[in-house]
Amino acid sequence: MAGNGAIKEDGGKGVKEMVIERIKSIKGIPPEENMLPGTPACAGCGGLLALRHCMKALGRKTVIVNAAGCFTLLAIYPYTPFKNSWLYTAMASAPAGAQGIRDALDILIKKGRLDPDEDLKVVVLTGDGAAYDMGLSSTSGAINRNLDFYYICYDNEAYGNTGVQWSGATPFASKTGTTPPGRISPIGSELAKKDLFAIWNSHKPPYLATISPAHPVDLINKFKKAEQYKGPKLFIALSPCPPGWGIDSSYTVKLAKLAVDTGVWALKEAVFGVVTHTVVPKRFKPVEEYLQVQGRFAHLFKPVRQEAALNKIQEGVNEYWNRHKLLL
Amino acid sequence: MRKEMLTGNAAAAWGVRLAEVDYIPVYPITPQTEIIETLARWISDGVMDSKYVTMDSEHSMLTAAGSASATGARAFTATSSQGLLYGFEMLYAVAGWRVPLVMANVSRGLSSPITLEPDHNDVLAARDTGFLQIHCETCQEVLDSILMAYRLVEDERVLLPIIVNLDGFYLSFTREPVEVPDVEQVRNFLPLYQPKHAFFKASQPMAQSAAVLGGLGYSYFKYQMHMASQNALAVYKEVCEEFETGFGRNYDTIEGYMLDDADYVLVMTNSFSTLGKAAVNNARESGIKAGLLRLRLVRPFPVADLKAAITGKMAVAVIDQNISIGKGGILHSEIASCLYNEKHRPLLLSFIAGLGGKNISPDEFEFIINKTVTGADTEDAGTAQLIYTDKEWQEMERLKRMAGKG
Ligand SMILES: Cc1ncc(C[n+]2csc(CCOP(=O)(O)OP(=O)(O)O)c2C)c(N)n1
Ligand code: SF4
Ligand SMILES: [Mg+2]
Questions:
Q1: Which residues contact residue A265 at a Cβ distance below 8 angstroms, ignoring those fewer than 6 apart?
Q2: How crowded is residue A5: how many other Cβ atoms within 10 Å of its Cβ?
Q3: To pair with A201 at 20 to 30 A between CA atoms, which of A66, B46, B174, B360?
Q4: Where exactly are the structural domains of chain A?
Q5: CA distance A44 to chain B (A)
Q6: What is the rounded average pLDDT for all residues in chain B?
Q7: pLDDT beneath 70, residues of chain B
Q8: Residue B405 domain-assigned?
Q9: How many domains does chain B fold into?
Q10: Do B190 and B272 share a domain, yes or no?
Q11: Residue nearest atom 4 in ligand 1 by C-alpha distance
């Protein structure tokens, strides 16, 4: 990062923040590919697209620490799509794996057994199931210890790899394998999506952001900004998943964009706990536009329109943006 | 070299200190905690140059220890009982990473009912994971075994993690005189860990622990682990010899006590073996040619050494301080399987005793030895005996009556 920006004093708080050379358009996205094609991920995987951009931002001096999920199958012996290193751990403990690697690199460098040039960025890569549910304890520990690492959560709003079941990230009224809409429970998932951003942000990490594969410029700039901080740098990418969401694989980017334009997915960042929204739609599209194109919400429209559920979703979105005084 | 009065836990900590371990992720649990507190103090005082971190669980602790080892650092961790089970998923995982992690397990019975005192269901639950296992009888042996463990598993022919086991309370909190070697002496025996197979560095990207699809890759790696574990039997002998040259103490895969000329053999592990040895003395005094075999290396299982030591004996009593509910003693089964094809296999009897730290009294040993002698005479091994004395039974009844449950 050094030399890539000036330092700005933030008046009252005395927090130093680098002025980042932001990219302005997709022309500014690094052309180098650090994750190559030919993986077994589904066609149109939104998470994979987000990851491709993340890896451009992170570069090759990186070790990915993975938890069980769809992306565990990216590295299948004896192949890997990555130009960087990789360690698969288990579903619950990728952040603990990052702790061991970071600490080991630090000690080996300190004891003169590893050249500092050999140092790596340590990057946790997990799905939402690991991040929102089983891995919450190990993530909280790592953030609390101010571990110097990145965390990329590709959030497809379900346990995808096991065939799409409910997770703590599944939104209200979504159909999954374990929340099937039926005569008794016509809504599907009755529970609200957990607010992982708020949970993580309660630790006041140096950097935390939501990202979208449909907003690569915003994504790259967030990584650029994050780089100046030592400590946890955390990213949650809402990631359309064609088989899980019931959409055509050509629809991924469009849907990721609709999630932002309807206000369902707020693009924001938080620096030491202070939240700023980075992309605010000028006029919010109705949430229905986002819902009605997805198979997982089809039961809200057919055979009968579930007006109450649809209203509840729209009201939830309105409430969020009202609370942040950003609903124009 | 100096002599100190050390608990089993302190002896374990000394082993870690002398091995100049780089990285120690921890999580507290009785009766292991004294190990990690001792290490924390030394690191805080600057007498040890290691990175130490308290994790959020044993599952995380084992992940961090394994991943640090996969990065190229010498790592140590310790646990007991519920902690070992909480981290269980990572035992298999870390073994598959082929990293030479050393972990102390301070044995303690498993809930339910929740308890503190030892038996070996915890450590034996890990027997199929790929971790090697050394089980210790004395505090000196704990210190020495940690040093031998690193030397053994860092050998390129092995590269598997290892558990050094000691009994909670009976060994963890018992002080014994221990010779603490000088660090230079240890360095001669245990050189710096410089992995050629698993590390992370920028100039040489490496995908570790990649998935496999189907049995082709899976079997390939699992067989390799088994063969590496088998290699460890030969490597162990080398390490043992070098340790003896350097430090003057010998620790074979098994320890025989009055074993050579014995007709009747007790098989035991860990600290209660000391009680067994006293029982052997008593039996000898009353004219019974008894002996004891203490199993020290439990994984890899020292089949050849065991066979050589006990084929031709009249009868062998395996005293298991563990119980596989619905089957019986775990070590009894293991020993039976390795003797089955021997022409001169001894009669093999099974006793379960000492569960949850319950004492094995001289009377109980006498009972076991008598059963073994009559078993040999009648050529009848009987079924597994669950040892519980009349006195103990009465004490339980008394307690229940007191609580109004009689
Ligand atoms: C301890 C454990 N429990 C359950 C599983 C089964 N499992 C594998 S992947 C997965 C889903 C993970 O969901 P998520 O983190 O959202 O990632 P995704 O599959 O959606 O990519 C589950 C439940 C496992 N591997 N380990
Ligand atoms: S199931 Fe969804 S998240 Fe998983 S690989 Fe396919 S598209 Fe991607
Ligand atoms: Mg998911």
A1: A210, A212, A238, A256, A259
A2: 17
A3: A66
A4: 39-323
A5: 22
A6: 98
A7: none
A8: no
A9: 2
A10: no
A11: A91
Interface check for A282 against chain B (CB to CB < 8 A): the answer is no
Give the mutation candidate from A71, A93, A124 for the B interface (greatest B CB count, under 10 A): A93
Distance from CA of B22 to the nearest CA of A (A): 7
The residue among B223, B247, B271 that closes a domain is B247
> Cβ contact (<8 Å) for A104 and B209?
no
Q: Do B214 and B311 belong together in one domain?
A: no
Q: Are B322 and B340 within one domain?
A: yes
Output the residue whose Cα is nearest ligand 1's atom 3.
Answer: A91
Do residues B207 and B296 share a domain? no
CB contact under 8 A, B210 and A75: yes
Residue B23: its chain A contacts at CB < 8 A? 100, 103-104, 107
Fold (topology level) of A39-323: Rossmann fold (3.40.50)
What is the pTM for the complete model shown? 0.97
B337 and B215 co-located in one domain: no
- How many whole angstroms separate alpha carbon A304 and alpha carbon A311? 14
Q: Which residue has the tokens 């646990």?
A: B79
Instruction: Decide if pLDDT at A87 tops 50.
Output: yes
User: Whole-angstrom Cα distance, residue B164 to residue B246?
Assistant: 20
For residue range B34-75, list pLDDT tens digits in order.
999 999 999 999 999 999 999 999 999 999 999 999 999 999
Whether the CB of A128 sits within 6 Å of ligand 1: yes
Whichever domain contains B262, its CATH number is 3.40.50.920
Q: Calculate how far, in angstroms, residue A71's C-alpha sits from the geometric centre of ligand 1.
A: 10
Q: Answer with the one of B247, B263, B287 that is the final residue of a domain.
A: B247
**Taking CB atoms and an 8 Å limit, are A104 and B65 in contact across chains?**
no
Domain-embedded: residue B370: yes
What's the Cα-to-Cα distance from A4 to each of A33, A138, A218, A227, B73, rounded to whole Å?
21, 33, 18, 10, 33
pLDDT digits (tens, 9 = 90+) for A165-206: 999 999 999 999 999 999 999 999 999 999 999 999 999 999
Q: Are A255 and A245 in contact (CB under 8 A)?
A: yes
What is the distance in angstroms between the Cα of B208 and the nearest Cα belonging to chain A? 5
E-assigned strands of chain A? Answer: 5-10, 15-20, 62-66, 85-88, 121-127, 149-155, 207-211, 232-238, 267-271, 274-279
B274 and B207 in one domain? Answer: no
Question: What distance in Å separates the CA atoms of residue A246 and residue A291, rounded to the nearest whole number?
Answer: 11
Cβ of B61 within 8 Å of Cβ of A92? The answer is: no
Domain identity same for B240 and B290 = no
